[in-house]
Amino acid sequence: xILEGVQxxxxxxxxxxxxxxxxxxxxxxxxxxxxxxxxxxxxxxxxRHRPSVVICDIRLPDLDGETLFAKSAQLVGGVxxxxxxxxxxxxxxxxxxxxxxxxxxxxxxxxxxxxxxxRALLASELPPGEGRLGVSPQMQRIEALLRxxxxxxxxxxxxxxxxxGKEVCARFxxxxxxxxxxxxxxxxxxxxxxxxxxSELFGHExxxxxxxxxxxxxxxxxxxxxxxxxxxxGDLPLAAQAKLLRLVQDRTFFRIGxxxxxxxxxRLVCATxxxxxxxxxxxxxxxxxxxxxxxxxxxxxxxxxxxxxxxPLLHHYLRDFAEKFASxxxxxxxxxxxxxxxxxxxxxxxxxxxRIERAVALADTPQIGLEDLFPEHAAAAPAATRDASLATLSxxxxxxxxxxxxxxxxxxxxxMSETARLLGISRTTLWEKMRRYGIAEPQGPAGNSRL
Length: 451
Description:
Rossmann fold; 5-stranded parallel beta sheet; alpha/beta; Helicase, Ruva Protein, domain 3; 20 helices
């Protein structure tokens, strides 16, 4: 039985060995899978429960893949389909992708590759900024911290490169706080001309200065009992920093030209891509203000340091923009995904959103390719990445498996037993694969191999 409220994989596969084996492997990975041996059994289940992902063999004893896909659309339209195909069914698999299936995987395939694809599809069901911040260990730790501090009013300072998602994290904190029903007022301090900063932040009274023809309510006042998010606070002029310090210390402020102090009832959350400690040493940022706003620092890592989030983010925004633009785009080619995982993303999440928006807006087929996502780099991409037909399927799978093992070793610090458990294989199998792919044996501090 498929559990309601739980992300589930519907596996439609008539092979009596492959079916249970995949269900068991998914269970090892912490994923819930339900196995159906025929198309009709699967359709009957879809009528009762909506799965999160469908993995389906193209050849079934009662239905072929195209028939099942068409009938499923009436029951679970929008659920991502991943087809398993033999060499003789590749043309049909390509037709299914063009018709809206997410992707296909050819037999024989590496189970690790299938697991990676499924994880990406499941993660795309959890929109960043709403239910989850990411699937990477780094972002899961940040999410846990933000949930823990959501109910308290201590000042939070988000640190990290431009475009990593600091405002997304701040909005996540707001959404999970008791102030969620009150305003979230975001201010980009770097975008306000220095001569207007005080007026924009604190407001002004009518006649306070030349051109002040009416009372103006500033961002501080508009935040009311919600969140005041000051982005790029490191770019705030020193004069404005002094007034902000008074706001933080006294919890009151004056409109320009005002005579009565007004209460500040919002929670202050700040963000910067600058090194504020260095700015304090150089005199560009007030030391007293720095310690006031930096009660709970949260460093958001760049996208290149959290590879697990790349594909979920791409799939999430692809679906968002496809709906917005009524685009036929439904998924990414393997070449596009592989290049995206290797790309350093200098512009971080902001660059990712820009690239996928452009690709989806211009798409005229269901699949976003390498040339759509990285048009300026597609011609220079490695041959095996640029066009999967230039390498054998076996070579492509081996390359993907090698990268996956290397990432697993990096995550566990080279500990073989832990890596084997993470991959769902025995230590002996792991050793054999490492020797096959030329992966160096991890060494401990004394030059001994790690267990």
